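Quick start: read one record
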Amino acid sequence: MSGETLVQQHPMTSQSDSVLSNPFDADSFDAAVMSTYGRFPLALERGAGCRVWDTEGREYLDFVAGIATCTLGHAHPVMVEAVTRQIQKLHHVSNLYYIPEQGELAKWIVEHSCADRVFFCNSGAEANEAAIKLARKYAHTVLEIEQPIILTAHSSFHGRTLATITATAQPKYQKNFNPLVPGFHYVPYNDIAAVETAISELDEGDYRVAAILIEPLQGEGGVRPGDVNYFQKLRQICDETGVLLIFDEVQVGMGRSGKLWGYEHLGVEPDIFTSAKGLGGGIPIGAMMCKKFCDVFQPGEHASTFGGNPFACGVALAVCQTLEKENILENVQHRGEQLRTGLRAIAAKYPHHITEVRGWGLIDGMELKADTELTAADVVKAAIHQGLLLVPAGAKVVRFVPPLIVTEKEVDTALQIVDKAMAAVTA
């Protein structure tokens, strides 16, 4: 099935709706925009549900969803109505004043999680920055640690700011950005002995481990789920030592895993956790949540100009309420099982090229064998040619993160295309 054969017209979005006044010109784009991304040769201009169209009218099934961000897909009626209503009412004011929409969204999050307090910002990196700052202040003012250290895991990903790329224990993201932010130490993921050793060895003089920042499931690190026993032991260690347990739920949270929060798969509660991506369904918003005991920020110690404004919070609240009202988590669970079952059947057809299929809900990865020249990018390119958008998670893992509203038929179509893509790249 080619991209051309997928072309349809959606009643809400016709080809004449394009906001581009001239045909898309990649050369003029590249001349004006910094080259911080390795883009696929594709210019997308509109979407509906789990489908998107490029500037030449070709249709694609979207299993990227803005990298696990478009919770309700594209042009969802609830989001269209929420955006329209809020922009006509009030879109931005300062946090110098009470913002009712912010309060309502915070209340919803608190009622649907283990959190007691919420801080709003604009992105996952900002949410993780807020968590790092909160942990450091808690370390100084409560734990009386002069030089606090935060443990993070190898192959993690926590953002692109200086602090969060330092927290991200992957050298490829840190190269040429020295000096990095001090106060971080790395341990292997799902290795409790390494955590115990680090806490023991780093307890020297003014230095001490103050927090552990970790993903319940590593997304960019290859879609690697956390081990239940490992995380329960982490919680025990933190309870015994006073170390804060921080979960980065930017990619796995907000229903992506089949549960509202990734920590629900692990049988533990974090002290602090972060969210972004799916929280606003594609409207930029981030959040850092915490238990009451570690809410040590005072006025003026942390802030965000755009964070928690009426527009972002109004739309995010509509997304949250829709997840609940339409029981979308049940769809995530069923479609996730369908997707993994289908991918494992494909893996069985290509045992010399695919080593494993893993994931939770609708964040799934297909890992390619290390000893083959085939890369995730090769599979992604072949799938694009067939009309399916996918995204790598490292060099050897193909990631599947469709909108949470994806249908049974759309998953079947995606699996058919992946099968054809694998046939093409292994021929």
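The longest helix spans residues 328-349.
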